[in-house]
Design goal:
184 residues, alpha+beta, Aminopeptidase, 8-stranded mixed sheet, 8 strands, binds coenzyme A, transferase, GCN5 family acetyltransferase, N-acetyltransferase
């Protein structure tokens, strides 16, 4: 079990409450945010259900991010299978992180702070062996967040990612192992 809330220097990360869904959806729907997401259309009912289901899902550690009691974004950690043959230790051995922050608070290090907490959760309480994240190569803010937290670019997919406005563009996958995180 994960202990919530998780406090960072400036932020509080916690599971969603029903009243968070509106503010979260409003942030997610901002064009500057949607622009960099894979899923551009969101069904509000499914979105709400997913957040509320996550509260009791041991493999979905999605968290609302609060600054001084105000929801400014969210940060997710999904527990997924690593690559490997069935029945081995690769099953549910990896964490996959993601984040969304309100553009009004951009560039203050909040995503980096929240993502750091999620990676620490993955390697700490959850005991996972590897954490990954993916992004469009053109998403420079996200690239920077992943590099600032010490993740390694492990895959550069040349024009492997479809973007509604930009067409076929490059994608990156980042990764870090538990022992690398510990040795940072
Ligand atoms: C990606 C995102 C979460 C970053 O949030 P944030 O709180 O601004 O992130 P941080 O402040 O921790 O770090 C952002 C870094 O990117 C840099 N950056 C931002 N825009 C940039 C740009 N266009 N070019 C180069 N660097 C850029 C910032 O300067 C900062 O780096 P620095 O600390 O070295 O100055 C936010 O922009 C967002 O929600 N984007 C839309 C959703 C999204 O892309 N989610 C991730 C999908 S993979």
């Amino acid at each position: 079990m994960v202990t919530w809330p998780r406090k960072t220097e400036r932020l509080t990360l916690r599971p969603a409450r029903p009243e968070d869904i509106g503010p979260l959806l409003a942030i997610r729907a901002l064009p500057a945010v949607t622009r960099w997401l894979i899923k551009t259309d969101v069904d509000p009912v499914q979105y709400r259900d997913r957040w509320l289901r996550a509260i009791n899902d041991p493999y979905d550690h999605s968290a609302v991010v609060e600054l001084d009691g105000r929801v400014i974004g969210d940060c997710g950690l999904g527990v997924i299978d690593g690559m490997g043959q069935p029945g081995g230790p690769s099953e549910r051995s990896e964490g996959q992180i993601g984040y969304i922050f309100h553009p009004g608070v951009a560039g203050r290090g909040y995503a980096t702070e929240a993502a750091t907490s999620m990676v620490a959760l993955a390697f700490g309480e959850l005991g996972l062996r590897r954490v990954t994240a993916g992004c469009f190569a053109d998403n420079l803010a996200s690239v920077r967040v992943l590099e600032k937290i010490g993740m390694r670019r492990e895959q550069h997919g040349v024009r492997d990612s479809w973007h509604a406005e930009l067409g076929w563009i490059d994608g990156y996958t980042y990764g870090i192992l538990a022992e690398e995180w510990a040795a940072r």
